[in-house]
Amino acid sequence: MNNNATVQHGGHIQVASDDSYFVKHWGYHDRTLPCTNDPGSCAYLDAIYWMHDVSMLYTFIMWAVIGGILAIVVLYRVLAPRPGPVPTKSAREAEGQRRGQSSAWYRASRAIQSSVRRWLLPERFVGLFGHTTSLQVLILMIILAYLLIFSLVGIVYKTWITPVKGTTNLFNQRSGIGGFADRVGALAYALTPFTVALGSRESMLTILTGLPYQSFNFLHRWTGRIILVQSALHTFGWTLIEANFYKPQPEVYQEFIKQTYIIWGCVALVFICFLSVFSLPVVARYTGHEFFRKAHYVAAGLYFGACWAHWSRLACWMIASLGIWGLDRGLRFLRTALIHTGHLHPSKGFGFHSAQSSLQYFDDEDGGVVRLEFQHNHDTWAVGQHFFLTFPALSIWQSHPLTVASVPAAHPAIPHHTYIVRARRGETGRLKTLALSHAASPNPETTPIVLSGPYGAPLLPSPSSPAEPTNILAIAGGTGISLTLPLALAATSLPSTAAIDFVWVIRRASSTQWIASELETLKRRAAQGKVDLKIHLYITRESPSQTATETATEFPAATPEHEGKDIKKACESSSSLSSLSSSANFTTTYLPSHRPSLHAIVTSFLETRANAEYRTRVIASGPACMGHDLRSAVAASNDGAKVWKNDRRWDVELEWDDRMG
């Protein structure tokens, strides 16, 4: 906002007299009436105050629209049609029962959702928007169009030439640019709490919509960039006015730029520029994700304060932003406190107790993998959820989102955590070094871990609230197995007629050692026939002969002091190789020169495996390119016409794990 409307405008444009009275305008200086200036100045003041009032109205309308959309989402979640009961009769009776029990309302709802997915699930303009769905891009386009319209509508497009007091040859040029600059500034203020809410881990939006917090990261980034553009337009507009349109120069601009609220506005612009630049993917990768997170928190708080100091009459938006930001941080600390202080330790009593984890390192050509395992007494999580883990032995200032690769234990059993972590540079590289030091120690060692969570949407219904069974195609690439492994273990723990395919794409056969025991459990369940489970491994950097050769030559002759360890490793590797032998429900495919076709995998599952009685869910985690291909494949597989005819398997949902947003 620009104080000229009252200090400049009010001081040398608005002239008070004994007959003057003041009219309050929310978020702005009081208006002095009646106007005793020249006709041009009075007309300009009428326009600037009218535009300001309209701007305030538009900010409230924007939040009314946001609230209305959220209310509609909540209402739909409450009133959404539910499927009929699962048929249990003979095949002929079941077919008639299936066709009769799905209401037209339910089939119409699911058919519409399937058709929408077909068009709005694929990624578009990846170079600009990154790996996100067309739906997210469409929502962003709607937001941009809305803000553009409301930035331009209600502006007085007129220019007034007014004399400068005390001169005869100088004139001020007054126009609607000031009203436009204030409009985009007001919308930037009003958009700030929404942007903060979109980026919150403890998100009210998650509670209202049922979507995990990471689903909002794309819009959080782009609304932040919108605020940057609005701030730049606001600054440019008033700089143009004060440095060019008002006379005499440079006296007017020099007086303008020295004012305290203008200085704070410049500070706020610096902070929003910092937030935007350092959140760019290329910059975040260069500086490190942890620096980005911590710097983001600090700079955001300073930005709120600078905006408050710049224009305190609209501090309500900054107070709301600080409230959301503070609540998010507070709830994170509360979660951690409840996990680590909420239970009596059998030997240490009450107090803060970190979990103690073992570390097991698996070497490979891509940097290696660390498997963490520990037990800790706290409330359980749901399959598919993740925790933020801090390793105090490495740093108390960093935390990493890691999906739990184990199935949560039912109360009163103590939960057992398993994590599969790819060792890269930074914190995970130091974790690898720590694991190697533990392996070299003659005595078993553990490392302390601090947890915060759980976060994310459950992938399976809780036992207390059973839901409609679904066909499940679980696809993982590399360490993405952390998501699909517990899903497959939990989904196959009870008999079911729904089809479940477990697909794991890895570079080398040795990667199966990461989850050797769990993989054997799945193979045993598939062989028993109580569940319709098939397991498919795709190995993309080795051929069968390479796997056998590497297994035979991996370990040289052992020295006496390492003989026991080497024999153990050789046995484990040999066991891993033998576990790749194909069977009726377990196949291993070597693709040494290319990746498997995810489109073919999805299509084959739907056509030959999926039970037509149930909807289909593709649940996956892996590299970004895998998500890109799966979005395209799943979108092409959705068929609203078949869903309307009650062939539910073509109602295909994709749940892609994207914790980094």
From TrEMBL:
InterPro entries: FAD-bd_8, FAD-bd_FR_type, Fe3_Rdtase_TM_dom, Fe_red_NAD-bd_6, Ferric/Cupric_Reductase, FNR_nucleotide-bd
Transmembrane segments: 57-79, 135-157, 222-241, 261-283, 295-311
Localization annotation: Membrane
Residue ranges of every copy of the FAD-binding FR-type domain listed in the record: 326-461
Gene3D superfamilies (UniProt xref): Nucleotide-binding domain of ferredoxin-NADP reductase (FNR) module (3.40.50.80)
SUPFAM superfamilies the UniProt entry points to: Ferredoxin reductase-like, C-terminal NADP-linked domain (SSF52343)
GO biological process, one term: copper ion import
An example Gene Ontology molecular-function term: ferric-chelate reductase activity
Keyword Transport: yes
Coiled-coil stretches noted in the UniProt entry, renumbered to this chain: none
One term under GO cellular component: plasma membrane
Topology relative to the membrane: Multi-pass membrane protein
Alphabetic keyword roster: Electron transport, Ion transport, Membrane, Oxidoreductase, Transmembrane, Transmembrane helix, Transport
Protein family: Belongs to the ferric reductase (FRE) family.
Name under which the protein is recorded: Ferric-chelate reductase
Organism: Marssonina brunnea f. sp. multigermtubi (strain MB_m1) (Marssonina leaf spot fungus)
